[in-house]
Amino acid sequence: MQASTPSTPIYGVMAEFRSADALLEAGGRAYREGYRVLDAFSPIPIHGMAEAIGQADKKVQRAVLAGGLAGMAGGFGLCTWTSTTEGIGGIMSGYALNVGGRPLLSWPAFIVPTFETTILFAAITAVVSMIAFNGLPLPYHPVFNVERFRDHASQDGFFLCIEAADPKFDAEGTRAFLQGLGAREVNDVAH
Amino acid sequence: MSERLTTASFEAPAGVDNARSRAMVVGAIGLIATIAGAFGSSTQFFQSYLVAFVYWTGVALGCLGLLMVQHLSGGAWGLMIRRILEASAKTIPLMFVLFLPIAFAGLPALYEWARPDVVAGDAMLQRKAPYLNATGFIARGIGYFAIWSLMTYLLTKWSQDQDGRPGAPYDKRFGKVSGPGLVVFGLTCTFAAVDWVMSLAPHWFSTIFGFLFIGGAGLAALALVITTMAQLSKTSPMSGVFEQKHFHDLGKLMFAFVMLYAYFSFSQFLIIWSANLPEELPWYLTRLTGPWKVIALLLVFGHFVLPFSLLLSADVKQNTKTVVPIALLLMVMRAVDLYWQMAPQYHHGAFHFHWMDVTAFVGVGGLWVAAYLHFLKGRPLLPVNDPYLREALASHGSH
């Protein structure tokens, strides 16, 4: 497959920090400096990291809420349809059975399946929307061109990458800025 | 955080004292009014008083349970609220004193099984008499309070000892009492719920009733903790200590208890509704008729739907301006729920509301809150010599 020609000479500039605290601090300073197209990489979850670099959107949460509500409506609807309809022309028919003289629309009995479908739909939506919003699956990513990143990002390295696509990006200036944040080392990231 | 953590740096602010005095006055007015009312109708006095007693004992017990849970689970959330839980649990001996009028004067007014004339004409109550009798009720009640008081005494005593020993290592005794303690706690609370509340309807039974009581107590306890934290966080020394993330964590826990309680309540309802048996169903039929039905619907909405929907949001849980009103709503709903469980039994299902229902609740509540704040004032607001406190106060490492 023909790779498209990149519009910038390099993908971005990456700095490595020694600790989660240092990365959190550096990410916050970079965001306050005006950088917007940047990402942080850490082997452990860091509280407040996403907020610090301005990536605290709620797309997944909203999708999960929508999925849960859909599951709730679907589950209750399914129970209602199967338990209250006699059938319309032989198709789509339910089982409108008299159980112990209770009304056909016996909602207390529907709550348990409704609860289950709510959780099921919400959980599946959480996984699928997380993968989709992250742009996965992604077979190639330029950050792996940095050797330190390959060896340490999943073990003991804390990385901040400012991408060339950032309007404020300037290879020399950004490199110097990251050095000034106390980075262990700063590398260019090839496409 | 400052580098030195000393007991002196976390002394309770003067506001706690002022609030204690106010609670004392409110409690005294409520109790005097209720005792005056007792001369009019001693039966109504005990009926109103029992609801208040069960409610406030439940808050103290919920805190004792959470205290043992956090000793076992560890985590910053537990260290942050340990002193609040301890202060609340220390009111248990006070609740024992308030139990005595019920035990020695109130039983015939409250419980059918304590009226010999009723028992004489009821074969079922005669069969249940080996358990449901005045001597057994009193002896068991004394036993529950003795066990709860002992657990509270040990846990708070060792916690106090820790204040005087800077640099002491982790004290394993907390876990050794809390582990078996929680098992005993679950059993004693179940029996207490059966004795005090469920036996108001002596023909009726529900096997989940103890869990229901413990779940409700835990919910009320967490609501109290969050409210107290929000008040303390307004002034020094806790203003910089209780942060958004702590409210977020405890808000999540309260959210979990909202769901847990709804789950227990609905389980009880669904099983009885499905079985449709004549010995179980009347309890719900009574409570789903007339004004009681309006209260039942209010509970579905106010005890579950509204707090559940609001607490879904992280922002709502983190902000004291939004999480505190929800906590207060839940404390009120817990009282309404107990009233809905207990009061219909007093008048054979007829709706009946008396002014003493309010004054007894406020009177016992004021006294309870005053005692709680007294104990809260008596200790530094954080266990400063706990070896994990420094880590809990660090900028990361929430939960």
Rough shape of chain B? globular
How many strand segments of chain B? Answer: 0
Kindly identify the CATH topology of the largest domain in chain A: Alpha-Beta Plaits
Strand content of chain A: 5-15%
Number of DSSP strand runs of chain A: 4
CATH architecture group name of the largest domain in chain A:
2-Layer Sandwich
Helix/sheet category of chain A: alpha+beta
The poorly predicted ranges of chain B are: none
Biggest sheet of chain B: strands, sense, closure? none
Radius of gyration of chain A (CA) equals: 26 Å
Topology as H/E string of chain B? HHHHHHHHHHHHHHHH
Distance between the termini of chain A: 16 Å
Report, as a whole number of angstroms, the end-to-end distance of chain B. 18 Å
Overall helicity of chain A: 40-55%
Structural class from helices and strands of chain B?
mainly alpha
Strand order of the largest sheet of chain A: 2-3-1-4
Describe this structure in words.
- The complex is a heterodimer of chains A (191) and B (399).
- Chain A has 191 residues and is α+β, with helices and mostly antiparallel strands.
- Chain A is elongated.
- Chain A has helices at residues 20-33, 49-52, 59-84, 107-133, 147-152, 171-180, and strands at residues 12-17, 38-41, 158-163, 185-189.
- Chain A folds into two domains: 10-57 and 139-190, Alpha-Beta Plaits (2-Layer Sandwich), CATH 3.30.70; 61-133, no CATH class.
- Chain B is mainly α and 399 residues long.
- Chain B has one domain (7-397).
- In chain B, α2 (42-73) runs antiparallel to α3.
- The two termini of chain B are 18 Å apart.
- At the A-B interface, α4 of A face α10 of B.
